[in-house]
Amino acid sequence: MSTAKNNLAWVAGLMLLGVAVVGARPGSASSAAAMTSTNAVGPKIQFATPFYDFGRVKAGELVKHTFMFTNTGDRLLVLTSVQPGCHCTTAGDWTKQVEPGQTGKIPIQFDTVGNNGPVIRQVIVSCNITNHPPSYLQLRGTVYRPIDFNPPMAMLNFPPDGEAASMVVTITNNTDQPLTLFGPEINNRLFSAQLTTNIPGRAYQLKVSVVPPLPMGYVPGQINLRTGWTNPAVVTLPVGANVQPAVMVMPTYVTLAAGPLARAVTNSVTIQNNSTNALKLSEPVVSVPGVAAQIKETRPGKSFVAMLEFPQGFLIPQGLHAELSVKSSNPKFPVVKVPIMQLPRPVMPRPAVVPVALPKPRPPAVAHPPPPLPPVPASQ
């Protein structure tokens, strides 16, 4: 009897245990799902290295490097854009989507043409990571020119009453091969150049000069130096002379709004003396009446400001030339003149013409023939 009771108790225990286990399964699944959702990190991007040092390369060469990255998250990584920071840096066919644990690549190319010295180029990488700033990739190194001119252009500022102007350009050989220079050859007879060797095969200097008379404004030129190499066989140095006017006006003319002016306006004009002699300005006059003008000397003998006060309602009469005139102590520029222009008044648009519908003409009346006359009876 006791044995039967024990068996019955054992079976009941198993049934209770089964119910407990079955009842616990949904709860365990929901707990695991909650844990999974809590620990989810989404997509993550990790670069093997975010920068690349290309060392020292010659100007004109292409620098190529492929940046490798890994999706260290647990969701699909999507690269939305790869943006180089300048036109000389470009991105190749980069990996658009990367599964968790997989790797991708971003090929970058940097064109060193026109560069010289230490350079840094950046690339911005954007992806679908929430609340994550863009990633920055970097190329850095030094670009050198085989033959370097310092400065790269000989620019001479020639004063209006100067007798000559010159400057020295250093030439450096940055290669291991000795360099021999010949020349120079100049395409503009206004310039002259003298080549001197400082260190044979390594360093030179070129003295560039310009002698008047020179035309006003910018005078260009070019100096060619033959080398003992086949590539390059000739190196070129651009040169230029900026011949300054004795008296310079900024701006070169005064512009006013369309007249009549709605309110009073004050304009200023700067007058600069580029000559070595001190300048005196006096008697400012505007050719149109009603405008007050005065001269202020900001730097004795060198810089001046002309103040022009235009009254409300000012309007330059049609066909009249308006200008500011200032007397000058410079014998070559006895009078400094500044034109004054006023914008034309806007033309009001003409009202649109609405066509009027005319009544349709009536068709002309049709004349009907008269009815025939009755027959005349025959006489008896």
Measured by DSSP, the beta-strand proportion falls in over 45%
Give the termini distance in whole angstroms: 166 Å
Q: Structural class of the secondary structure composition?
A: mainly beta
The coarse overall form would be: flat
How many distinct helices?
1
CATH-defined fold name of the largest domain:
Immunoglobulin-like
Uncertain runs are 14-38
Physical arrangement of strands within the biggest beta sheet: 2-9-8-4-6
Number of structural units classed as domains: 3
Largest sheet, in brief, is: 5 strands, mixed
What is the H-and-E element order? HEEEEEEEEEEEEEEEEEEEEEEEEE
What is the percent of helical residues? 10-25%
CATH architectural type of the largest domain: Sandwich
Number of strands: 25
**CATH-defined superfamily of the largest domain:** Immunoglobulins
The radius of gyration computed from the alpha-carbon positions, rounded to a whole number of angstroms, is 45 Å
What does this 3D model show about the protein?
The protein is mostly beta strands and 380 residues long. It has 3 domains: 45-144, Immunoglobulins (Immunoglobulin-like); 147-243, Immunoglobulins (Immunoglobulin-like); 247-342, Sandwich (Immunoglobulin-like), CATH 2.60.40.10. Helix content is 10%, strand content 47%. It is built from 1 helix and 25 strands. It has one helix at residues 2-39; strands at 45-47, 51-58, 62-71, 77-84, 89-91, 97-98, 103-111, 117-127, 135-144, 147-150, 154-158, 165-173, 181-186, 191-199, 203-210, 217-227, 234-243, 247-250, 254-256, 265-273, 281-286, 292-299, 303-310, 322-328, 335-342. It has a 5-stranded mixed beta sheet with strand order 2-9-8-4-6, with no helix packed on it. Strands 1-3-7-5 form a 4-stranded antiparallel beta sheet, with no helix packed on it. The chain has a 4-stranded antiparallel beta sheet with strand order 10-12-15-14, with no helix packed on it. Strand 16 and strand 17 form a beta hairpin. The longest helix is centred in the first third of the chain and has 38 residues, at 2-39. It is flat.
